[in-house]
C-alpha cells in the first residue's frame, strides 16, 4: 500500500513539474531585409527555444522574446 502511495506522489510531482512552467512565449523572426514576424508558443522555455530555432532558415534569424 505504501508503495502505491509513493508512486502516486512521484507521478503527481512529475506532472506538476512539466505543467507549471508552461507559458506563452513569443518567437520573433527577422529576415535579412529587416521584416519581422512573430508567433506565440505555449511551452516551457527550453521547448519554446527549440521550436523557435526550427524556424531559422536561410535569411531568417529567430529568438525568444
Explain what the structure shows.
By secondary structure, the protein is an alpha+beta fold. The model has no long low-confidence stretch (mean pLDDT 80). Helices cover 43% and strands 34% of the residues. It has helices at residues 2-19, 45-54, and strands at residues 23-31, 36-43, 60-64. The protein has a 3-stranded antiparallel beta sheet, with helices on one face. The termini are far apart. It is built from 2 helices and 3 strands, in the order αββαβ.
Determine the structural class based on helices, strands and strand pairing: alpha+beta
- Average the pLDDT over all residues and give the rounded result: 80
Uncertain residue ranges: none
Q: Going across the major beta sheet, what is the strand order?
A: 2-1-3
Gross morphology is rod-shaped
**Percent of residues in beta strands:** 25-35%
Span between termini: 47 Å
Helix-strand sequence? HEEHE
Q: Count of DSSP E strands?
A: 3
Helix tally equals: 2
Considering DSSP H and I runs of 4 or more, what fraction of the residues is helical?
A: 40-55%
What summary fits the major beta sheet? 3 strands, antiparallel
Radius of gyration: 18 Å
Amino acid at each position: 500500500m505504501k508503495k502505491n502511495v509513493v508512486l502516486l506522489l512521484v507521478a503527481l510531482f512529475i506532472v506538476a513539474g512539466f505543467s507549471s512552467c508552461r507559458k506563452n512565449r513569443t518567437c520573433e523572426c527577422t529576415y535579412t531585409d529587416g521584416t519581422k514576424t512573430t508567433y506565440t508558443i505555449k511551452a516551457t522555455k527550453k521547448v519554446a527555444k527549440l521550436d523557435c530555432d526550427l524556424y531559422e532558415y536561410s535569411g531568417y534569424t529567430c529568438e525568444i522574446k
